User: Which sequence fits this backbone?
């Protein structure tokens, strides 16, 4: 579990003068240095040991309590040093080399005198072995801390697919990926981002499949991120996003290792950070909003139908309130007579105009939705009862809102929830369309549709057209876009993402 | 460059927002939905009386739609329609109006000036039905709703749509009427609506055809004659043909499909029209209990019925020629389409030529099947 820390040294943190100090050959001074660095931190543990047979072998063991395995440390570090049978004359750096190569039976051990690297390792849970007479010290990996067990991802459930999801531990996640693609071309490239959090970030891709241009662009953008702290992978997402102000995402995220592997097999680059159970995938196309893991594990006819359903649902979720408003208040002649009479009857003696009614009802729905997601699950049911009975039934009975409006808002909400990932965009677009409809009727709605299509067509994700596969009817792209073709079709012409021409960086991560 | 982009976007927005044509934010419940309108003569000579049927919606536990009638007289259609606000409080909403019923007396004077507003107005749709009242007035048809307060206009439009299955009146929209009014070589016609009076309850029924010459009504014919005219018009989509062969009991054929070809034949000084109809039917009712399941019997039945159909069609067209002299079938149009050079020379006096045109009808009836049984019911004790 060796971190590739080569390029971290230039990422120097000049805030604390202690960090720029050099290690000396005195065990006392070195220990003192670490005590000063961790001066107000009580989790630092120091254990001084001496070998009874070799008097020159004096060591200090430094570790952060709770991050290391005590058993492993006493068995594989302390005991071998205490029992070591070495020539008595050995001193300083030679002794240090002996310890490194002959005494400590650990698989992951290295020597270092770079104070920054050392601090990174000890805070990550490594044990430091300071040796008297040497200006370097040993870094032994003895990390052991509790992580969440691998469990089914809650945001992307699958019925027939694998049930494992990413956890907060990066290394666990990488094993999940490696186990799905046993391929030496699968590369994991580590880096660190965040001066205050020192977060490990990992790029993963398959060499030979990923286009170099895209990979370089990803690395470039990641390098130019300047942020002090990163808690979750979404921080990175906002930095490398091609359309930073857009509600439409141009960076995908997933909680499932199988999805990530599927995406990198199509030539995408995965980005993961330590501490976040989500992985990012770039480039991200619009159609990926509608592709879910289950599509690939179930019957292709059924899943093609479901995928079409998802696309239609998205269109409906942004259109229903706007169209209803436009038809009822501007273009009544387009409603069938019987329906018009029903709406007429329902709207009679309702005090609010339709436009206010619809905006208020949609807001009420969004409030209920937000309340439902934030509340613990056992109170969530209460919300749905309140929402359905009190606000729906009672409001209609009291003639505060009309019954068709409740149906419209309810339907909008349900179809909106089918595509959870696109919800932020669909809420915004829904309101924009509603406002356009309120001013210009069906004409305004069509305006909105045209502008939306033009806008989506203009978006790029790492140089790849956002609507890439939508305008094309070539057999390579269509088999996995609006429908999901059977596997014997998909396998023949596998879609590989690629960019022609130069990638223009439109993100906020610029040097 | 940025200013150019900005101004061009502004220009595009400005221009497109002016292209919205007629639009306005208005709530449904602020208007009264008009279902139909009847036009009669007013008390004084040049005044019209409009009777508008609006749908009164009673919201509540059970939604009830009841008709309500507003009457107002005036000289201009639009003026009357607007003035109805003073009676009704709400503005009338015309987009869902289904029928215009015009009284016979007005139709005889000419309908061109009345329907202008209905065609011109942006709100009124020209796919509504123009009906000519076969009763004394038009309003008595619209207001006859006595049995369970039905909205007559909606009922009438449903009835006319279902004429496809009965073929006793043509399904003509207002725009069809305008079209034939303006067209050379075809006279206008409109469905006739009459009242069936039984036990003090009267129900309107669309049956027959009102025949126009220019925009004046010249006469009306009944539903059966209309059906045979529809054969010549190639507008038969369904319906029943009833024949009395040798005895008093009828034999009924259900029409599935019909194809009519009209061919004009122009000779030196005479004009002749060959009408060929081919009809696919099934034997739907066999009261005389004739046997027909051999090929010979079937073809003799086909032949007999064909001859009767030929005569009926011929008589209907003859009636048009002799009684009304109005070319509602569009024979003139047929000449115009097929022999434009001839039409140029005769178009000016087509009105006088039409009654003299010779007609010959050839009909062919194909009996496809005899519904669910192949044999007549045998009587045995």
Assistant:
């Amino acid at each position: 579990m060796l971190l590739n820390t080569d390029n971290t040294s230039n990422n120097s943190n000049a805030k604390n003068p202690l960090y720029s100090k050099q290690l000396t050959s005195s065990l006392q001074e070195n220990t003192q240095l670490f005590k000063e660095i961790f001066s107000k931190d009580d989790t630092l543990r120091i254990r001084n040991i001496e070998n009874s047979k070799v008097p020159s072998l004096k060591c200090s063991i430094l570790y952060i309590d709770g991050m290391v395995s005590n058993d492993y440390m006493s068995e594989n570090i302390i005991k071998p040093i205490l029992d070591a049978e070495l020539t008595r004359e050995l001193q300083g750096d030679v002794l240090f080399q002996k310890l490194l190569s002959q005494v400590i039976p650990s698989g992951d051990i290295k020597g270092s005198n770079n104070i920054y690297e050392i601090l990174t390792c000890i805070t990550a849970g490594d044990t430091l072995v300071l040796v008297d007479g040497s200006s370097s010290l040993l870094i032994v990996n003895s990390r052991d801390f509790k992580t969440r067990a691998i469990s089914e991802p809650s945001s992307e459930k699958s019925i027939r697919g694998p049930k494992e999801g990413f956890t907060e531990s990066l290394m666990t996640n990488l094993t999940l990926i490696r186990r799905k693609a046993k391929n030496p071309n699968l590369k994991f490239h580590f880096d660190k981002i965040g001066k205050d959090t020192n977060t490990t970030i990992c790029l993963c891709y398959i060499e030979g499949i990923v286009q170099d241009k895209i990979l370089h662009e990803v690395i470039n953008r990641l390098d130019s991120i300047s942020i002090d702290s990163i808690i979750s992978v979404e921080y990175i997402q906002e930095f490398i996003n091609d359309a930073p102000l857009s509600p439409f995402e141009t960076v995908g995220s997933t909680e499932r290792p199988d999805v990530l592997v599927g995406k990198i097999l199509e030539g995408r680059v995965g980005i993961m950070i330590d501490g976040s159970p989500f992985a990012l995938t770039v480039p991200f196309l619009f159609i990926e909003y509608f592709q879910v893991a289950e599509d690939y594990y179930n019957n292709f006819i059924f899943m093609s139908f479901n995928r079409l359903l998802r696309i239609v649902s998205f269109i409906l979720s942004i259109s229903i309130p706007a169209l209803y408003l436009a038809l009822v208040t501007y273009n009544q002649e387009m409603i069938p007579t019987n329906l018009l009479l029903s709406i007429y009857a329902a709207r009679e003696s309702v005090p609010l105009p339709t436009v206010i009614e619809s905006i208020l009802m949609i807001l009420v729905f969004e409030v209920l939705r937000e309340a439902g997601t934030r509340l613990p699950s056992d109170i969530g049911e209460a919300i749905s009862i309140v929402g359905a009975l009190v606000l729906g039934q009672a409001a209609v009975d009291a003639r505060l809102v009309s019954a068709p409006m409740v149906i419209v808002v309810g339907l909008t909400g349900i179809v909106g929830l089918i595509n959870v990932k696109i919800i932020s965009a669909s809420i915004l677009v829904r309101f924009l369309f509603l406002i356009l409809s309120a001013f210009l009727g069906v004409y305004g709605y069509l305006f909105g549709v045209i502008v939306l299509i033009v806008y989506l067509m203009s978006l790029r994700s790492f140089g790849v057209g956002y609507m890439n596969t939508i305008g094309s009817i070539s057999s390579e792209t269509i088999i996995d876009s609006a429908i999901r073709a059977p596997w014997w079709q998909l396998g023949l012409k596998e879609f590989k993402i690629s960019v022609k021409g130069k990638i223009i960086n439109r993100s906020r991560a610029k040097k | 460059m940025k200013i150019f982009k900005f101004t061009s976007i502004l220009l595009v927005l400005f221009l497109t927002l002016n292209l919205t044509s007629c639009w306005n934010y208005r709530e449904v419940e602020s208007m009264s939905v008009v279902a139909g309108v009847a036009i009669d003569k007013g008390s004084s000579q040049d005044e019209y009386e409009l009777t508008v049927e609006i749908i009164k919606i009673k919201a509540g536990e059970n939604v009830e739609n009841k008709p309500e009638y507003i009457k107002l007289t005036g000289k201009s259609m639009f003026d009357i329609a607007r003035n109805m606000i003073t009676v009704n409080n709400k503005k009338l909403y015309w987009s869902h109006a289904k029928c215009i019923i015009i009284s016979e007396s007005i139709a005889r004077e000419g309908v061109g000036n009345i329907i202008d507003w209905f065609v011109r107005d942006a709100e009124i749709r020209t796919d509504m039905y123009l009906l000519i009242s076969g009763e004394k007035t038009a309003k008595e048809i619209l207001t006859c709703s006595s049995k369970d307060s039905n909205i007559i206009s909606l009922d009438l439009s449903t009835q006319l749509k279902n004429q496809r299955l009965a073929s006793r009146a043509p399904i003509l929209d207002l725009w069809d009427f305008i079209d034939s009014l303006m067209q050379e070589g075809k006279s206008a016609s409109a469905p006739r609506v009459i009242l069936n009076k039984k036990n003090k309850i009267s129900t309107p029924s669309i049956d027959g055809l009102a025949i126009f010459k220019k925009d004046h009504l010249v006469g009306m014919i009944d539903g059966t004659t209309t059906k045979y005219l529809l054969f010549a018009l190639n507008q038969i989509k369904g319906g029943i043909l009833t024949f009395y062969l040798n005895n008093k009991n009828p034999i009924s054929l259900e029409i599935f499909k019909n194809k009519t070809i009209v061919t004009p034949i122009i000779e030196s000084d005479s004009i002749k029209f060959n009408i060929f109809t081919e009809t696919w039917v099934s034997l739907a009712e066999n009261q005389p209990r004739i046997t027909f399941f051999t090929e010979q019997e079937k073809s003799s039945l086909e032949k007999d019925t064909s001859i009767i159909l030929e005569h009926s069609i011929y008589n209907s067209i003859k009636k048009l020629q002799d009684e009304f002299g109005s070319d509602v079938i569009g024979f003139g149009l047929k000449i115009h389409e097929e022999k434009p050079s001839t039409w140029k020379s005769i178009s000016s006096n087509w009105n006088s030529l039409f009654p003299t045109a010779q007609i010959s009808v050839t009909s062919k009836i194909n009996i496809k099947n005899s519904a669910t049984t192949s044999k007549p019911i045998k009587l045995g004790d």
